[in-house]
Write a structure and sequence with these properties.
The longest helix has 17 residues, at about 170-190. This protein has a single domain, classed as P-loop containing nucleotide triphosphate hydrolases (Rossmann fold, 3-Layer(aba) Sandwich). The protein contains seven helices and nine strands, in the order βββαββαβαααβαβαβ. The chain is globular, with a radius of gyration of 17 Å. The chain is about 35% helix and about 25% strand. It has helices at about 45-50, 75-80, 95-105, 115-125, 140-155, 170-190, 200, and strands spanning about 5-15, 20-30, 30-35, 60-65, 70, 80-85, 160-165, 190-195, 205-210. It is of the alpha/beta class. Strands 6-7-8-3-9 form a five-stranded parallel beta sheet. It has a four-stranded antiparallel beta sheet with strand order 2-1-4-5, with helices on one face. α3 packs across α4 (about 115-125) and α3 (about 95-105) packs parallel to α5.
Length: about 210
């Protein structure tokens, strides 16, 4: 089993001179999970973006290692999955076309058409959207869109899975699907959730309050 590790050494993030968080230290490894909490607007989503390498930290150092070896930025990206309400879908594409497009961004090598189709269809089944796969996303409900985003996040079977407010727009059935993927991630990799929902907090073993780093 590969051991993935994220190490943050004294990281800070600011925008236009305004500090979002500062002097944050963190170490988390495979089969560990973390909840990031804090009031709305205090930097939970920003920290998720920094940890997933979508946004650069202003100070400090973040290292992602696999079996003790530092990973470069491209490999780090390929090892992660991100569920966030801020991802934009392509409304004029079908659910299947959307998922295929995003999956191909994470492919590390050329794969046969049959393989890609099987993966896309499998994960559409997993989030209960297979029957809607050929419908345009503009006709999806908000909950269906969130489940499609969940499929994006896990289709590459990431070692590191980030979930930012994962219950957004989900009904009870959608939450059950999300919880199932979160539980599976804890068994094999790193799970990090940004949330203030008490039930979501129970999914993780540790808690970091972003307001402690203001």
């Amino acid at each position: 089993m590969n051991i993935i590790e994220i190490v943050c050494d004294n990281i800070s993030k600011s925008y236009s001179g305004k500090s979002i968080f500062k002097n944050l230290n963190l170490k988390i490894s495979s089969r560990e999970s973390l909840t990031i909490t804090g009031r709305n607007g205090t930097g939970k989503s920003t920290l998720i973006k920094v940890l997933s390498n979508l946004v650069k930290n202003s100070k400090g150092r973040i290292t992602v290692r696999e079996n003790g070896k530092d990973l470069n930025a491209e490999t780090w990206f390929l090892r992660t999955g991100l569920l966030t309400p801020y991802y934009n879908l392509y409304d004029e594409l079908t659910g299947s076309e959307n998922l295929r497009f995003f999956y191909e961004l994470k492919l590390q090598e050329n794969k046969k058409e049959e393989f890609i189709n099987e993966r896309v269809n499998f994960f559409l089944h997993e989030v209960s959207l297979y029957d809607k796969r050929n419908e345009l996303v503009k006709n999806y409900s908000s909950g269906m869109k969130q489940r499609l985003k969940l499929a994006f996040a896990v289709i590459n079977e990431p070692e590191i899975l980030f979930m930012d407010e994962p219950r957004t727009n989900l009904d009870k059935y959608g939450i059950e699907i999300m919880n199932r993927f979160a539980g599976a991630q804890k068994e094999k990799g790193i799970l990090i959730i940004a949330t203030n929902d008490e039930d979501d907090k129970q999914l993780c073993d540790r808690t970091l309050n972003i307001e402690d780093y203001r």
